[in-house]
Amino acid sequence: MAGKAVKVAITIPQEEYREVEAIRRRLGASRSAVILHALESWLAARRELARDRKYRAAYRRRPETKAEVEAQRALVSQMLASEEWEP
Hints:
The chain is mainly alpha-helical. It is 70% helix and 0% strand. The protein has one domain. It is built from three helices and no strands.
């Protein structure tokens, strides 16, 4: 954990609690570690979604030109042609 930790109390459905408890015991992980991992994953997914939205908005403002698409296609074709392919 980076920085100062804060203690929180949460309420979750009993079914999820039992499932998490079984998994964390099998892994030898603490409840705090499991919850922290879940929060980190959720936050990372939110950041990725925000980046994706930002990228799509920028693309809508300035989509690729036909010349750019053709240049990319030519480069990819050239790169793939130089690769060894298994029969």
